[in-house]
Amino acid sequence: MEEEMHTDAKIRAESGTGSSPRGSGCSLRHFACEQNLLSRPDGSASFLQGDTSVLAGVYGPAEVKVSKEIFNKATLEVILRPKIGLPGVAEKSRERLIRNTCEAVVLGTLHPRTSITVVLQVVSDAGSLLACCLNAACMALVDAGVPMRALFCGITCALDSDGTLVLDPTSKQEKEARAVLTFALDSVERKLLMSSTKGLYSDTELQQCLAAAQAASQHVFRFYRESLQRRYSKS
Amino acid sequence: MKETPLSNCERRFLLRAIEEKKRLDGRQTYDYRNIRISFGTDYGCCIVELGKTRVLGQVSCELVSPKLNRATEGILFFNLELSQMAAPAFEPGRHSDLLVKLNRLLERCLRNSKCIDTESLCVVAGEKVWQIRVDLHLLNHDGNIIDAASIAAIVALCHFRRPDVSVQGDEVTLYTPEERDPVPLSIHHMPICVSFAFFQQGTYLLVDPNEREERVMDGLLVIAMNKHREICTIQSSGGIMLLKDQVLRCSKIAGVKVAEITELILKALENDQKVRKEGGKFGFAESIANQRITAFKMEKAPIDTSDVEEKAEEIIAEAEPPSEVVSTPVLWTPGTAQIGEGVENSWGDLEDSEKEDDEGGGDEAIILDSIKMDTGVEVSDIGSQDAPIILSDSEEEEMIILEPDKNPKKIRTQTTSAKQEKAPSKKPVKRRKKKRAAN
């Protein structure tokens, strides 16, 4: 019941503040992040976006099996576990997307013949799951001290039937949307690292979603910076 | 990853400390670590922290047909997973006996004790019953997994609400959570496991061992009890031999501990219910402590997307138009279709491409005269050999073809000079003969 109340409040805010139908009333949900909450992994982070919550743990650089070792860089492995049931094909495809993003950013050549393992556990899913997984993975890699050339973040956009753009959709909005697009953007120049889309959309709409995601990523990166500043500041 | 072995001095240190009735974290012999229970936004989701050991529990339900020999009872399914983030040594496939042991103990504790009324899970006898599935994930391993898991399981079951069902004659109506409030499960009692670790052949015992203590222990005694002091399950592993009064003493301690833990669970459930009823905020976001420096929150952030349209139009105007994609399929016969033309057929050039490959391998040695073609050997030295060399009696190498004109055709910049020099010399070139079907 309360969940619906929250969702209603958000939708009202979105339609109330923006007069143009193109969603200038877009907003990201309430964010929260906690780092270093698990004692065994080298780095861990719990990332919450509204009601969606993902816990990430990173082990690495650590020993790698001879069959999996790469002679000149680190072997990156991503494991995503759903909350209910055994992992299936959807989890495998998300693992691959997250791994491709991480490989583009992690400086694997500094640690050859080692393994870096990112384990993600879905704690609750209320929309924008892939984006939340990406954010949790990035914060966990930062917490583990894995060298990276940039930070990355995930943003999900949903296009509903009349073309309105919604950022960070809830599961209800995702279900009713015509297309759901998830982008991974890097922190240096907001360039695109990974995109995964589902549904029907035109190329104009794709560019619009990408531009909106880039605008939203600024907030996410500011959140990262502030949370790390809080942790490492001396005051 | 392999598990880091425990060093001998650490082992000796721990055992000596236990002999002197000291524990590394300052607890007394019978003390439990701090238990913290937090709930998620959906019903049936909880995270239990026993010290640093963390377990996530989720209960879900589904309508299925019942088992044939139990047509009027619902089905319970328990699954504990040791996530790979819990310990570096937990890999899928390894640690299977620990996993089996924990799962079996959990099942005995919850299923065989009949803490959940399975008769109430029946909707239509023989046709439709509720299947309740409890998924537990170990997130961090700091010892005593079974206690944390049993607490998480029972808390999740008590917290869970299943959709309401009504049966009128032959009609069964399943109400969504919006139509009718979901209904809690009917739970008779709450069995909770308490672990006792034994050291030095049963001389010393500790309640709630942490990970280091578990590594050096001799044996483990697990007693599952409810607050009415009824023993639901008891298991002794490790091969230690316990005296009768030791077991009785442990059961008395377990009774006290279970009473405390049950009180804690009931209070946590009550708090959560109160918050939900009053309309306050609940869920994992609220359980993140504000004062920790490793935690940070940000309220809802509005994003200004008013210039999105202009940016998008700019990008599209600047970008090249997409290449024409031919997408009309041609149907040859039912079941065979062709899309596109594909590249030019290069089967006829098999020998040339082969020769080129072989030559490319021997390029480093600047071969001018003849080239040895062998099935596996890399072409190497051969700078000054004139006559063709027969390397084996294989029939494949019989044919000698003089085709000096064909040499310069396949151009690779490195081999160009070599080939052109070869052209006028007209040396016989041995080549591996493959099926000349294409020719």
Automatic annotation (TrEMBL), chain A:
GO MF terms held by the record: DNA binding; RNA binding
Subcellular location: Cytoplasm; Nucleus, Nucleolus
Pfam family of the protein (one): RNase_PH
Gene3D superfamilies: GHMP Kinase, N-terminal domain
Positions of region (Disordered): 1-24
Biased composition (Basic and acidic residues): 1-13
Example GO BP: nuclear mRNA surveillance
Domain of life assignment: Eukaryota
Gene Ontology CC, one term: cytosol
Alphabetical UniProt keywords: Cytoplasm, DNA-binding, Exosome, Nucleus, Phosphoprotein, rRNA processing
Ranges of residues in domain Exoribonuclease phosphorolytic: 28-147, 151-215
Subunit composition and interactions: Homodimer. Component of the RNA exosome core complex (Exo-9), composed of EXOSC1, EXOSC2, EXOSC3, EXOSC4, EXOSC5, EXOSC6, EXOSC7, EXOSC8 and EXOSC9; within the complex interacts with EXOSC3, EXOSC8, and EXOSC9. The catalytically inactive RNA exosome core complex (Exo-9) associates with the catalytic subunit EXOSC10/RRP6. Exo-9 may associate with DIS3 to form the nucleolar exosome complex, or DIS3L to form the cytoplasmic exosome complex.
Family note: Belongs to the RNase PH family.
PANTHER family recorded: EXOSOME COMPLEX COMPONENT, EXOSOME COMPLEX COMPONENT RRP46
Record-given protein name: Exosome complex component RRP46
Source taxonomy: Eukaryota, Metazoa, Chordata, Craniata, Vertebrata
From TrEMBL, chain B:
Domain (Exoribonuclease phosphorolytic) ranges: 32-163, 189-254
Record-linked InterPro entries: ExoRNase_PH_dom1, ExoRNase_PH_dom2, ExoRNase_PH_dom2_sf, Exosome_comp_Rrp42_subfam, PNPase/RNase_PH_dom_sf, Ribosomal_Su5_D2-typ_SF, Rrp45
Domain of life: Eukaryota
Matching Gene3D superfamilies: GHMP Kinase, N-terminal domain
Record field: compositional bias (Acidic residues): 349-362
Location(s) in or outside the cell: Cytoplasm; Nucleus, Nucleolus
CDD domains the record matches: RNase_PH_RRP45
Compositional bias annotation for Basic residues: 425-439
Keyword annotations from UniProtKB, A to Z: Cytoplasm, Exosome, Nucleus, RNA-binding, rRNA processing
GO molecular function, one term: mRNA 3'-UTR AU-rich region binding
Biological processes per GO annotation: exonucleolytic trimming to generate mature 3'-end of 5.8S rRNA from tricistronic rRNA transcript (SSU-rRNA, 5.8S rRNA, LSU-rRNA); nuclear mRNA surveillance; nuclear polyadenylation-dependent rRNA catabolic process; rRNA catabolic process; TRAMP-dependent tRNA surveillance pathway; U1 snRNA 3'-end processing; U4 snRNA 3'-end processing; U5 snRNA 3'-end processing
Gene Ontology cellular-component terms listed: cytoplasmic exosome (RNase complex); nuclear exosome (RNase complex); nucleolus
Ranges for region Disordered: 336-362, 384-439
A matching Pfam family: RNase_PH
SUPFAM superfamilies per UniProt: Ribonuclease PH domain 2-like (SSF55666), Ribosomal protein S5 domain 2-like (SSF54211)
Quaternary context: Component of the RNA exosome core complex (Exo-9), composed of EXOSC1, EXOSC2, EXOSC3, EXOSC4, EXOSC5, EXOSC6, EXOSC7, EXOSC8 and EXOSC9; within the complex interacts with EXOSC3, EXOSC4, EXOSC5 and DIS3. The catalytically inactive RNA exosome core complex (Exo-9) associates with the catalytic subunit EXOSC10/RRP6. Exo-9 may associate with DIS3 to form the nucleolar exosome complex, or DIS3L to form the cytoplasmic exosome complex.
Similarity comment: family membership: Belongs to the RNase PH family.
Protein name per UniProt: Exosome complex component RRP45
Organism expressing this protein natively: Gorilla gorilla gorilla
